[in-house]
Design brief:
By secondary structure, this protein is an alpha/beta fold. It has one domain (about 20-115). The protein is built from three helices and seven strands. Strands 1, 2, 3, 4, 5, 6 and 7 form a seven-stranded mixed beta sheet that branches. A hairpin with a 2-residue loop joins strand 6 (about 90) and strand 7 (about 95-100).
Amino acid sequence: MSSQMVEIAHEPLKRIVIRELVKYDNPQQLVNALSFIMKMGQPVLLTWADSMVFVSQPIPPSDMPEEYARGELYIASISYAPMAEFVHNVKAGNVEMPVIDVSKNEARRRLTNQFSFSRNTSSSLE
């Protein structure tokens, strides 16, 4: 019996298209804006990298299979706020949202760097 090796390939995304960027002045404003989603029973997980806390609403790859096969991910909206240091939770009033540190992910770091100079303008992440 011959055994064949399975090829495993890592193919990172080639392009991320962000349709809307929404900046808040601080993490508490971001939490306040997202609190209605939590009240509707939807979980919200904030992410943090390079002094920014954010939440994204990607368009599911199943809705754009050809683009995803080409290595493109479309994000409908990213809401973000500056947050110098990582903390495990952000609290605003009686609402508390967990935060996960994604600073080890190269694509997420590049996204947060984009926030710094892309204030609702079209630009490349390259």
